[in-house]
Structures are given as structure tokens and as C-alpha cells.
Amino acid sequence: MSIHNYLHDSIQAQMKKFIVLSMMLFSHLCKAQAVMPWELLAVPYSITPDGLYEPQFPSWLDKYQNQEIVIQGYLVPVDVEGNQYALSRYAFSSCFFCGNAEPNSVIELIFKDRPDNLITDQFVVVKGTLVFNSKDPFRLFFILQQVEFAG
């Protein structure tokens, strides 16, 4: 075998390895979900005569209904004993529950498995199925079901 053939075969083998590794990396990146920006959830709302919030979900948001999303934010306890938590765009001192933000800046969390040791204001990345709530004025506009920590 000449040195020319040896180098040619070696380069071809290295190129094949590079292509296979590139394809593996690309397929992994395609499976990863992008983190949903909170701006997408900044839906308009009105206040009823009873003082309750009523969301108006724009039609362009429909593609996210009942879809798995990934979103990051701050854990806010709603009822610790009842294991009810929300995810807030803002830390507790600036969140909706303290009167410093709008109701479209929080998401009700329904965990797949009951988590232990959740910390108020802990910054987390979660994934789950996004549901829009336009029927029950005593629940949040957005509900994330089957929630798991994603990062």
C-alpha cells in the first residue's frame, strides 16, 4: 500500500467518524426543546364586574395548547400542605401574588410525581403539558400538567 493510499484511507475514515458524530449531535439537538419565553404567555385579559380575571387567548397561541413545553421561572408556594405550587416569571417579592405583576406571569403547576423539598424562589426549569384555563376564574390562566424538572 502506498503512502498516498494510506493517507487517503485514513482521511476517509476520519471523515466518516466526523460525519457520524455530527449526525449524532444534530439529532440530539433536534430532540431538545427550546425554553418558552414568558412573552408568549403575556395574553390580554379583562376584569369581570365581580373583580375576577378573564383571559383572552389569541389564536396564534393555539399551537401550544395541550403541547409539552419547557419553561423556567421561580417556584412560588400556593398551598404548601396541599402541595400546590406556581411557577412565576418573577421572584416572590415581585410576583402576581404580591400584587406586583399581572396574572399572565404565573403558571399553575401539577407535578407528575410529588416533589420533596421545594424552596420558595428557587429558579427552576420545568417541562409539562400546557393547558389554557378560560373556564375557572379561581385558577390561573395557564396550567402545566405532568410537570417534571428539566434542568
Tally of contiguous helical segments: 1
Radius of gyration: 23 Å
Largest sheet: 5 strands, mixed, barrel
Alpha-beta classification: alpha+beta
Number of strands: 7
- Unreliable stretches (pLDDT < 50, length at least 5) are 18-31
Tell me the series of helices and strands, N- to C-terminal: HEEEEEEE
Mean of pLDDT = 83
Shape: globular
> What level of helicity do the residues show?
10-25%
Strand order of the largest sheet: 3-4-5-7-6
Residue fraction in strands = 25-35%
How many angstroms does the end-to-end distance come to?
A: 52 Å
Description:
By secondary structure, the chain is of the alpha+beta class. It is built from one helix and seven strands; from the N terminus they run αβββββββ. The protein has one helix spanning 3-31; strands at residues 45-47, 53-55, 68-79, 84-88, 106-111, 123-132, 142-149. The strands form two sheets. It has a five-stranded mixed barrel. Strands 1-2 form a two-stranded antiparallel sheet. β3 (68-79) and β4 form a beta hairpin.
